[in-house]
């Protein structure tokens, strides 16, 4: 009996790797192992990137040395950061950020509690402008704890706990709501190269389009979302090559902290605020990818999630339009998927 059980497990594992229909049904009943847990315990979208990022501690909280991030900003400066643009930094070279859920007319901070542990507020005291920054744009706002926070162009100013070196801008685009500050208080990414593609989004909406590259259909796949009526398609991205998208043309991602076999989920809890499990599809309506790779799995909450080559796949809330790939290589853990069901390399 023991030998038979081992053989059954081996067959199931092999079948899952092949992605046939029998294994897909078996995988649906496989729940995460008992040691699976949410990755990180930070605020909302941030914890969705896992706790293994550079400078992050195992609990997903503030990075090493993050206590210094609550200190005065000193003389602000403007520096160019690759892939982000001209951003405002403090006197130590730390990138400064704004939060889309805050307000600037009038100034208001909506980042407290756990949020403020990951995004420490910059004190209003001892802040001054240097060349390239209009001193008249500097101000302050009183937080819920009574402390005074620096504002730039009316926007409350923050540091990111996981930026560990001068010039880091790991907080850019987190959750689609955190952005490095430009000298005028706007989003630096929107001004890179003369403005975000398609224009700046108004109303405090999510941004990130300026850091993306356009996608065009792969040969033989028809329009941008692939074959007409397809629930999964392969499209050609100018930077990443052939990648998998859903019926609406949205990029699908896999997470290094998940596991295909044994099936385990690394994205739980607050992670799901940023990374949404993709819904299962009819494998007969997959275009450009072998139908045998398409399956589904039951999550701990009982919902079903799409799998590709036995890996759960997700949508990124930071992708606000079809064709964007802002989630690729986030924290070195999240990756787009190619036509073979494998993750696209970090370098694209």
TrEMBL record:
Superkingdom of origin: Bacteria
InterPro entries, alphabetized: Lipoprotein_repeat, SCO0930-like
Biased composition (Gly residues): 192-208
Keyword Lipoprotein attributed: yes
Annotated stretches, region: Disordered: 49-74, 189-226
One Pfam family per UniProt: Lipoprotein_15
Biased composition (Low complexity): 56-74
Keywords: Lipoprotein, Signal
Signal peptide per UniProt: 1-18
PANTHER family documented for this protein: BLL4220 PROTEIN
Name under which the protein is recorded: SCO0930 family lipoprotein
Organism: Streptomyces goshikiensis
Lineage of producing organism: Bacteria, Bacillati, Actinomycetota, Actinomycetes, Kitasatosporales
């Amino acid at each position: 009996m023991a030998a038979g059980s081992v053989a059954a497990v081996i067959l199931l594992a092999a079948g899952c790797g092949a992605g046939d229909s029998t294994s897909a049904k078996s995988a649906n009943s496989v729940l995460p192992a008992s040691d699976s847990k949410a990755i990180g315990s930070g605020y909302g979208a941030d914890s969705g990137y896992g706790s293994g990022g550079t400078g992050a501690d195992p609990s997903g909280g503030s990075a090493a040395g993050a206590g210094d991030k609550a200190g005065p900003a000193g003389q602000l400066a403007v520096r160019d950061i690759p892939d982000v643009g001209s951003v405002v930094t403090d006197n130590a070279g730390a990138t400064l950020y704004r939060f889309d859920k805050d307000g600037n007319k009038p100034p208001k901070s909506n980042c407290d509690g756990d949020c403020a542990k990951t995004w420490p507020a910059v004190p209003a005291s001892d802040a001054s402008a240097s060349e390239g920054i209009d001193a008249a744009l500097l101000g302050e706002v009183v937080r819920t704890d009574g402390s005074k926070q620096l504002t730039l162009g009316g926007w409350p100013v923050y540091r990111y706990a996981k930026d560990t070196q001068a010039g880091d801008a790991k907080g850019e685009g987190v959750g689609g709501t955190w952005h490095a500050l430009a000298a005028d208080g706007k989003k630096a990414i929107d001004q890179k190269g003369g403005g975000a593609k398609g224009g700046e989004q108004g109303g405090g909406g999510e941004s990130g389009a300026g850091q993306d590259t356009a996608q065009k259909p792969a040969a033989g796949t028809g329009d941008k979302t692939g074959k007409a009526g397809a629930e999964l398609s392969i499209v050609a991205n100018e930077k990443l090559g052939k990648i998998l998208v859903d019926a609406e043309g949205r990029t699908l991602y896999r997470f290094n902290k998940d596991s295909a076999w044994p099936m385990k989920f690394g994205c739980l809890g607050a992670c799901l605020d940023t990374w949404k499990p993709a819904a299962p599809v009819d494998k007969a309506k997959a275009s450009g990818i072998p139908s045998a790779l398409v399956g589904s799995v039951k999550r701990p909450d009982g919902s079903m999630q799409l799998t590709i080559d036995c890996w759960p796949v997700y949508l990124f809330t930071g992708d606000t339009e079809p064709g964007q790939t802002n989630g690729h290589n986030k924290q070195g853990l999240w990756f787009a998927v190619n036509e073979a069901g494998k993750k696209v390399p970090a370098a694209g």
